[in-house]
């Protein structure tokens, strides 16, 4: 389905024949999954969340051959995303957080995944990435970040690059404005996009530090995200109100900042007056070298 970028090594495909999953329900009983959709996303307690009508979560469960997990880190309200080819088990993790490295690696191990790439959507200011430490704990794992981030990594990404995992891939769209090196990762079929801090649900990343520029962000969102199909589901790096996903059509219509003119948007962004993230002084230097190393 997607071509392979030369900088990522081909992954062992021998697992494919022995480790096949029922793709429609990620291992759940198929009939049950059809009648009562299981939401594999953010779970606040021990009980899984069941949804009765077709929703964002239901859409996830019906994506052909794609295993998807939306994970949450409570202190920084960060979403980490795990995507894998249900047949080959090749997997990619987006924006993993240091505090939740054990949880994330347990998922990888329990689901029998072969994690090949850990990608950060940008150099985060509010938490330390677990990418560096994850590389030490998983042989063959490669880190990836935008070439414009200023951060070290095995793979430096640019517009149009593809991160393959089995029959699936993520395609890089550069969406600077919150930082210089912000990227949005879009699935090959354009049904899902991981927007980092460029576009949040009914909001967007702040533009008052780390090379932030409101007009640049406005242009990025309008040209690189709002040009995706209306049905494309959007998954941000954060949400502070418990929301999990949105869609392009929804944000084009209801985002209170991005529906304004560029001048109005810049005025809003330049007057947010938010306090700096609590961990900023330690997070940024650490993330420039792929997070903590030991
Ligand atoms: N309170 C948090 C930081 C909250 C914050 O500033 N979030 C950023 C994304 S992480 S750099 C942001 O862009 N927010 C935009 C908004 O409108 O809220 C902490 O102390 O860590």
UniProtKB/TrEMBL annotation:
Keyword rRNA processing: no
EC number: 1.13.11.18
SMART domains, alphabetized: Lactamase_B
Transmembrane segments: none
Biological process, per Gene Ontology: glutathione metabolic process; hydrogen sulfide metabolic process
Domain Metallo-beta-lactamase: 77-238
Entry GO CC: mitochondrion
Chief location of this protein within or outside the cell: mitochondrion
InterPro entries: Metallo-B-lactamas (IPR001279), Mito_Persulfide_Diox (IPR051682), POD-like_MBL-fold (IPR044528), RibonucZ/Hydroxyglut_hydro (IPR036866)
Binding partners and assembly: Homodimer. Monomer. Interacts with TST. May interact with RELA.
Entry protein name: Persulfide dioxygenase ETHE1, mitochondrial
Species this chain originates from: Astatotilapia calliptera
């Amino acid at each position: 389905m997607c071509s392979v970028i030369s900088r990522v090594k081909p992954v062992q495909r021998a697992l494919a024949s022995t480790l096949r999953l029922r793709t429609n329900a990620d291992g759940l009983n198929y009939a049950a999954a059809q009648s009562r959709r299981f939401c594999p996303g953010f779970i606040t307690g021990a009980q899984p969340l069941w949804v009765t009508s077709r929703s964002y979560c239901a859409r996830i469960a019906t994506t052909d051959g794609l295993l998807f997990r939306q994970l949450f880190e409570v202190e920084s309200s960060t979403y980490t995303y795990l995507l894998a080819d249900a047949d080959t088990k090749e997997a990619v993790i987006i924006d993993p957080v240091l505090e939740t490295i054990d949880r994330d690696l347990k998922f990888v191990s329990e689901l029998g995944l072969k994690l090949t790439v850990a990608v950060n959507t940008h150099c985060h200011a509010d938490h330390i990435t677990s990418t560096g430490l994850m590389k030490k704990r998983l042989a063959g794992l490669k880190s990836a970040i935008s070439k414009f981030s200023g951060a070290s990594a095995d793979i430096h990404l640019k517009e149009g690059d593809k991160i393959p995992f089995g029959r699936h891939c993520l395609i890089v769209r550069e969406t600077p404005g919150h930082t210089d090196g912000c990227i949005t990762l879009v699935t090959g079929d354009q049904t899902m996009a991981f927007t980092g801090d460029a576009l949040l649900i009914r909001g967007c990343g702040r533009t008052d530090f780390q090379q932030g520029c409101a007009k640049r962000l406005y242009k990025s969102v309008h040209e690189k995200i709002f040009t995706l199909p209306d049905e494309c589901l959007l998954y941000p790096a954060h949400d502070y109100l418990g929301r999990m996903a949105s869609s392009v059509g929804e944000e084009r219509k209801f985002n209170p900042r991005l529906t304004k003119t560029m001048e109005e948007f810049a005025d809003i962004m330049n007057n947010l007056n938010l306090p700096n993230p609590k961990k900023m002084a330690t997070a940024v230097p650490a993330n420039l070298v792929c997070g903590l190393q030991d």
